[in-house]
Amino acid sequence: MRRWISRRKLTRAAAAVGARSPDALEERIATLQEELRTTKQRLKAGVGGGRPKPAEIAGRAESIGDVPLVAWSGELASIDELKALAKDVRGALPSGVVALALDVDEPQLFVTVSDDLVARGISAGSLVQAAMPHLDGRGGGRPQMAQGKGSRRDGLDAAFASIRDAIRRPGAA
């Protein structure tokens, strides 16, 4: 014996999964199944599997002359989570520049500079100001830490390149 589902139940089911109408329910379920499959593959590969490990990020530091630089961007929940990550990376990299960015539609940049480098004239505020034109944004801060927010996500690589250039030029950072 075959049971029929009422139109009202189909309408509620469609709304629950974000389908435009009951007629679009099958297509929406297929899309959700594909998204789930892709997400499972990414998690299995270690991509997007939660908060990055600070020691791993610090371990990727590059040398700009004698200045260690960590330049990392990724998707996190908020600027507060980015700042917490920067603090943890700073703990794993006591001397250096930590430049982290939220890779989202309105990118945000957070830079910290260790005290020994601040004493040498490297300023987080100056580094953020050098980077922000590439993100079509503004920012600033103190020598030890600064942040900015922009509107051009595709400018993150150029923003990090500007930070590298500013560190290379004595007195420019």
Description:
The chain is of the alpha+beta class. The protein folds into two domains: 7-45; 54-168, Roll (Diaminopimelate Epimerase, Chain A, domain 1), CATH 3.10.310.40. The protein is 45% helix and 18% strand. The chain has a six-stranded mixed beta sheet, sandwiched between helices. Strand 2, helix 4 and strand 3 (97-102) form a beta-alpha-beta unit.
Write the layout of secondary structure elements.
Layout lengths: L6 H11 L7 H21 L8 H6 L2 E3 L2 E8 L4 H14 L4 E6 L5 E6 L1 H5 L4 H8 L6 E4 L3 E5 L6 H13 L5
Parallel strand pairs: 2-3
Antiparallel strand pairs: 1-2, 3-4, 4-6, 5-6
Helix pairs in contact: 1-2, 6-7
Number of strands: 6
Tell me the number of structural domains.
Answer: 2
CATH class of the largest domain: Alpha Beta
Helix share bin: 40-55%
Terminal CA distance reads 77 Å
Given as residue ranges, the uncertain stretches (5+ residues, pLDDT < 50) are none
Main sheet summary: 6 strands, mixed
Biggest sheet: strands side by side, in what order?
1-2-3-4-6-5
Order of helices and strands: HHHEEHEEHHEEH
Structural class: alpha+beta
| Radius of gyration from the alpha-carbon trace, in angstroms | 22 Å
Mean pLDDT: 88
CATH topology of the largest domain: Diaminopimelate Epimerase, Chain A, domain 1
Strand proportion, as a percent range, falls in 15-25%
User: What count of helical segments does DSSP give?
Assistant: 7
Identify the CATH architecture of the largest domain: Roll
Shape, per Cα inertia axes: elongated
